[in-house]
Design goal:
Length: 817
Amino acid sequence: WQPTRARARTRTHTRGGGMCTGRGGESDGAMRAVVDGAVRGYPATRVPDDLKHPERFWVDYAIKASSVDDARARAWEACLEQTVELPEDTTAVQEVMPYVVGSIERIAPITEGEEYRVSIAYPNDTAGDELTQWLNVVFGNTSLKPGVAVVDVTLSPKLLADTNMFPGARFGVQGLRKMLGVSRAPLLMTALKPMGKSSAELARMAYLLARGGCDIIKDDHGLADQVWAPFEERVAMCSRAVALANAETGRNCLYAPSLNAPCTKVLQRAWYAKDQGCGAIMLLPGITGFDCMRELAADPNFGLPILLHPAMLGGWLSGSSGDAGGFTHDFLFGTLPRLLGADAVIFPNAGGRFKFTPDECQAVAEGCRRPMGRFRPALPCPAGGMKLHRCTEMRETFGDDTLFLIGGALLQAGPDLEANARAFADAAGRNGPYAPPPSPSAMLARKNGQAATPPPTMQHLSSVAPESHPLTPAGRALAAAMSPSKGLSAVALRCMAMGEEAESSVPSLPMPDVGGGTSAALESPLPTPTVGGGAAAAAALTPMVMGRDEENDWSRAAAMKSPLPMPDVGGGTSATRGSPLPAPSVGGGAAAVGELMQSAVRREAPSAPVPAKRRPLPIPDDWSIEEMLSSLSTFTIEGDKSKVLRFSPSSFRWSGVPVEAYKQDGSTFKGVSRVELIGKRGESAAQHTRYFECAPGGFSTLERHEHQHTVVVIRGQGEAQLGPEIVPLSFGDVVYTAPNHAHQFRCAPNASEPFGFLCIVAADRDRPKPLTVDEAAELLKAAKGRGANYAEALMGGAAAEGDTGVSACEWKPRSAR
């Protein structure tokens, strides 16, 4: 896939699905001398090959045209439109053409006299090293013209090596398989819905679906921050519900919240999800932008799998016929997401609620998997109204390296979501060691050396009498009342049959050994599960960052007996590999979750996990899912009640608390942000606590006010202007500013990190007043030899004469005024 001219061409020229993404086998001249030489003869202003900019990326377009000449003319229009946006004969264009304007490199017919594939090479510098501008050059204004579609791109060597601009999938197919512990057969995903359910109801659903064997449980894309299930509350509850299920089953189900949010909150919510122990996230780039996905995928400290949801992307697609322009299916749902960091791509499957054709779906799958050099394959995820009976067909169509998404059908199959999820796994061919965990009675039978009764098939349940159903008494009564003749489907009967209740005589059932990954606990008299042996399955471990070097990052997994390649938690080395270090005991039930939550933090380096220093909302040993949900139902940072705002040292942010602009007006400060900790969300405190952060080279407004405030430095180094005095500050220093005393806080331009401080101020206070330019000039005279940076900060923090400094720094007027 790498764009070297030495490679031999192996692919044919078609409109979509598997187009050539590499260039090679011909010289520069030969690459233009195709279609009977019709591409020769550029306009006279074209520059000879030896003068062209050496670093260019290629974009392949499918262009509707009546002839080669017509296609060449339209392609030349695109060369100008995507760069200079001026007519060719403009003097300014003539001057910059050699190193700015795109060049037509190849034309080949897709359908002679109807559509042609055209390759245009654009100089790297037109993208400005930013994804947003690169996308603008790729399709920008030309997307508004009919009959033009983007079918492929080829990165230049420089762009190919740029892992910030094009990070690629961090996990991909094999990474997700190893994270989930499923080395073969399709992976299974479902969705929490519908909109309108409470956070507790959604968390209960997540718990049951995780127990039933789903690999990934995502939010429905319509779940955002609505009143019935606020984002922070929902994520906190669902992540812990899935962690509890994982601790009980020994599996590693991932919960992926939907980050359908304003641009200022997408990254904030992503980090909040990581802090809460979520195993993945789902992004909607058609709404929030592809650059948000790129930013998270490129951040080595984030390191969670990214799922792409196709909402709003339908309007970006080129039509399969007619003059509609856009992106081809394989590029929009395959090539582009893989370049920018998607590990799995959801798309509408043929025969569902949407109208994708089988060929278009195959093209998407091909785009997700075809070789692309360093870019890992992504999991194609056919979705959109899929039913259980279509699993066999989807497996035959897309193969095992596929993520099946079935949401509504599992809810419609019956009230027992755990059994419904088991039926999903069975329909997808997930049997043997990759089947869902056994039901409680099957685990007990296995422990006692008895043969567990195999689950009945759907055909069997639909043919036997209700009294013969292998159900609990309550289940048999329900089956008698709702036989197939009375409208109960065979799938629902099967789900009921598999939803066995544990007998009251069953003692506290042993969990599979969380460390070793096997069910050795079932062979001994109720041992306490351990956590130090390597493959901990609780969801709190899933945010562990896996690096990009697949061989090194996953090498530990090969030596483990467990199929789950999760990092060790305590004990140093995996117990299954013969470590003499004892694994720390965690206790039974849900205690494993609370202990394992400690590892849900970012890693400073891809190769070594960093243990957490706190345990977010630990779960007592004997709590049930209902008790856990009840305790979490009060988790919110809103309102006048006691609360804890959780701090993340790696991001230097507080979970759920947004980063805001320092002030609305940007004329008297530079590079400063504000975080309102206490006082803005309904608290009745007489004082407000804020956190301000100055980026290197940043400074606050030079101002004074009647109220006092106290500043405590908690990050980096900086300095304070206190009247005419300049005071250096570092961690732990406390500053008190007296009434009406001029002050400013600054961070040096060459600082290695931001300068951050807490600011405690009265809730009832007057509006700050910026110093005038003349007053700032007097202070500048008193500080001789401080240099240009000091002068910029001091004068930049002042206001023009008569400017009262309209501030949005959450000023609250004094009640007496």
